Amino acid sequence: MQDRERDTARTRRVVLDAAAKVVGTHGSGASVDAIARAAGVSKGGLLHHFRSRDQLLLALAEDLAEQFAAAVYAAVDPRDHAPGRLVRGYVNATFDDLLDESRVPEQAVLAATLSNVPGVAEVLRRDKQRWKEAFDADKLHPQRVLLITRAADGAAIAGLYEGGSDPGELEHARRLLLALSRHDGPLLDL
Hints:
The protein is mainly alpha-helical. The protein is built from 9 helices and no strands. The protein has helices at about 1-25, 30-40, 45-50, 55-75, 85-100, 105-115, 120-140, 140-160, 165-180. The termini are far apart. It comes from Micromonospora peucetia. This is TetR/AcrR family transcriptional regulator. It holds the Pfam family TetR_C_28.
C-alpha cells in the first residue's frame, strides 16, 4: 500500500513538473497529450491522476502556490525573530528565484498563464488571504508589507517586459527591500 502511495505521489509530481514546463512554453491551451508526453506517461495514466485538463491546471496553480510558500518559509532566517522576518523570507525567496539563471521566473509566468482556468482565481484569492494573515502575524507595519511585497512581485515580472534582468540591479533592489523591512512603523503618516 505504501509503495502504491509513493508511486502515486511520484507520478503526480512528474506530471505537475511536466505541466509547468509545457504550460510555461505553450500557454494554458497546452494539450493533455503534450503534457503526458513530457511527463513520460500515457494520456490515460495522466487522466487517472487528474480527471481533466482543467483539474490538472488547477492542481498546477495550487502546487505553484505551495512551492512558493515553502520557498518563503525556507528562506526565513531561523535566528531572525524581529518583526518582518517573513517579509524578508518572501523577498529572499523571490530574488533567489530571479537570480537563478537556470530558471525562468516560473511563478509569475505560470500564474498569469493559468489565470483564466476555472477555479484558479479562487486559488489565488485563498493564497492572497494566506499571505495577508501570515504577514499580519509577522508584525511589520502594513505600509511596509504592502510596499515591500508589491515591489518584490513587480521585480518578478519586470524582466519579462524588459527582455531580462540585470543581476546587479536585482541584488540592489533586494538590499533596499530588506533594509525597509528592518524598521518598523509607517513609511508615511497618511
